[in-house]
Amino acid sequence: MGRSWLRDYIIKRLIYSVIIAWCILTITFILVRVGPSSPADKYLANIAARGGDPAQVTAAVEARYGLDKPIYAQYFSYMGNLFRGNWGWSFSTSMPVIELIKTHWIYSFQLILLSSLFAAFIGMLIGIYSAVKQYTKTDYAFTFLSFIGISIPNFWLGIMLILVFSVKLGLFKTYYDTTLPLFSLDNLKALVLPVITLGTGMLAGYVRYTRSAMLDNLRKAFVTTARAKGLPERTVIGKHVFRNALLPLVTIIMFDLGSIVFGGAYLTEIIFGIPGLGQISFNAIFANDYPVVVAVTLIGTFMVLLVNLATDISYTYLDPRIRYG
Amino acid sequence: MRKFGIFLALTLVLITLTAGCAKGTTVRSDFIDGQSGGDAETLNWILAADASSFSYAGHTVDSLATYDNQFNIQLRCLAKDIEVSPDALVYTVTIRDDLKWSNGSSVTAEDYVYTLKNLMFSDWLNYPYKSDWQEEVDGKTVFVTPQAVNDTTFTIIRQTVYPEFVYNIYNLIPYPKYIAVNYEGNVEAFTQAPEFNNLTYTGNLGPYRFREWSRNDRFVVERNPDYYLGKDVGAPYFGQYIVKLFSTSATRQAALEAGDISESGIEPAEVNRLRSMPNIKVYTIPTTGYTLLAYNQRANGWEGLKDKTVRQALSMAISKQTISQAILLGFAEPAYSFIPATSQWHMDEGVAKYGVVPLYDKQKAAELLYREGYGIKEDNGAIKVTDKGGNPLHLILAVNTGSKPAEDMAFSIRKDLLALGIETEIKLVPWATLLRQYVMNSVPDSKQEAAYNNGPDAISQEPWDLILMGFSTNLLAPSGSRVFFTTQGGLNFFGYSNTEVDELFNRARSKEALDKNARQQIYAELSRVLSEEQPVDFLVFHRVNVGFQKNVMGIEPGINMGYNYYLWYFEPVK
After folding, report:
1. Looking at the partner chain, which of B128, B251, B479 has a beta carbon nearest the beta carbon of A57?
2. Is the ipTM value over 0.95, yes or no?
3. What is the model's pLDDT at position A325?
4. Which of A184, B234, B238, B374 could bond B369 through an S-S bridge, CB–CB 3.0 to 4.6 Å?
5. Which of B35, B39, B45, B50 to mutate to test the interface with A (most CBs of A within 10 A)?
């Protein structure tokens, strides 16, 4: 009963999420369908090679997928199907959209999850160490390395890792092998380079944020009190300082998680040939395959909204003083 | 002693097995073909408009025939070459009698006729390449008439002569009538039919059978032990043929270098380095692709481009050597018409070779432009190219983003034109924008839908003068290029019109061209006229580099290198 306000808050947020998702879905649909391109654009080279009639090919392709109908008719037809649980047929991959997503989400998910864990765990450990050992040589070294980590572009780092560890040293395969069993050491090994590629920038960021948040708290009176009470330094840092520093960190980690789902992970997927949702949606945009684009955007939207909700809820546990009206 | 005996026996077995691999017949490793051209759209190939879909399906179903590197026809599903009646109106096709669908039933002539009549020619399915099977009769567009004669023979009857029509027939692949009838008339059901999307019907028709397609990742086919061409020789020799997709050429080449894949295209800058590697062999092969610079002869292009002499002058100022040698590192050769030297229809005689010495001459180019009224003479006698009013000339060159060589070519062209005093503004635009705003056109203030050629009065949304673009030629049937160069051509977006060229393309598709010598002369004349007219500046024909692991054997490098790929094998480990 004591936390009934939280249940009401969650229900309210979920209702808002549905409305926001519907708005984003509609905007995405309109942007994809009124954009200056047609699925037939990419056939031009093949049409030219065959000496075909471009107008005939374009008309045939558009008619087959109902793209010759007015935009509003396409929109209502799509929304009607979506409402009935039919996500449509992906005409650029020739399979039901739901099947496509079911097959490929796991590749993005495992990459994002492992990268986030890797970055958060190591980043926070280094950040804590740097803060506690402020202005030592190790702190300077970590600071220097974290700036490099933040500055390195993903695509460059990924290619360099492949050239060194796969081509020169032969330690890893040059591309991600989708035939490996999901829960196997081989799969984990195949993900080492992609995780480092995607996680390095985040890790470096977490080092900086953790260090800064820790230093803020280290200067506060409750830390002096804790030390004066004779608490061991490990308890002061771990239980008091770090717990207070976690609040802004959780916001940043959750925000990162939301933003890399289909943005940051895409480049890593490209470099290592991981057929995740980032790559699927990117190709769908170029193919004008709106059922896929809209579906992936919808999933992305819900994920971001849910992550935000989870962040808000986690605040109430990290800081029991927080209440939502 | 007993252990030694077992060891000896095992050694003997091993030696015997290794010896048996001399021709690769027992080697069953997987061949991994690294590609970056984008994934296929469907395995239900009759719906496809992209090349990858045909390529994927082609691993499991052969067409009627293909051709080798010297353009000799290689029979596939054909029992003998197609017979053409003396009037070139009746084509008699005889297929092999040992072709089987997956349910064990024979592939018959009726399957081919059904595929044409009930699927390709139907209104409900919207086959994208209907025009391959259509002809103009008394001003009407009609389909040719296919007809089954018996189980293995069918005819296709035309009402008009088209000497190159036979090549459309060679490419024909059948659908199984016994399955397709279940979906007839329902495009949604046909599109989603599991038999067609999983290629479960292909029987013994191709060297491989479908196994798996992971979108944007890999397409896997496995050895077909029943393949009609492989029965006697045990081919194919790869256990699986895997098309592995890469999004970047850098990672694809790294995979080849590391030995993770068997084949990959190589970027020009990487060729020498990969050639020096002991585990890789690189073949340089010609292609049918060429890059050209289109001159806008429509109303929203610079008026000078309608003048043949002006076009000649501009082409004379643009160095093809720079493009082929400095930008494409020698993996291209200057182009002068749409027919490359690799084609049997190529003739060099009388072709004006603009862009190479002696027709690469900036001074002469400036003089030609001056003579046409586009220039002023400065005090030192030097000519500065201007518009007719004596004002500086400013041209717009549009090129799509994402291709480094294309961008480099654009900058090379700008530099060449600047030497004449012409300022060129390069507009780098995405492909969709290039097509919609620059290439497609419509008549102003009309309700016309934009298309690639909406007649002589149509103009593009954005003004332009030059567009850099890639085209390609069908080497066996070059008359298909009429889509670019005839007045009514569906891809003649630059508005070129010349009755002589229109007539020559018509002649290439007429009775007269049944005589191969006559057709050769027509193509020679077309090359000559187009090289003289310069509707576009034909810049270069491209060559590509393909790298293989050194142990891949049986490859015959050439323009159609894959024609015998079912006979490729891995050299046995010694």
Report:
1. B128
2. no
3. 62
4. B374
5. B50
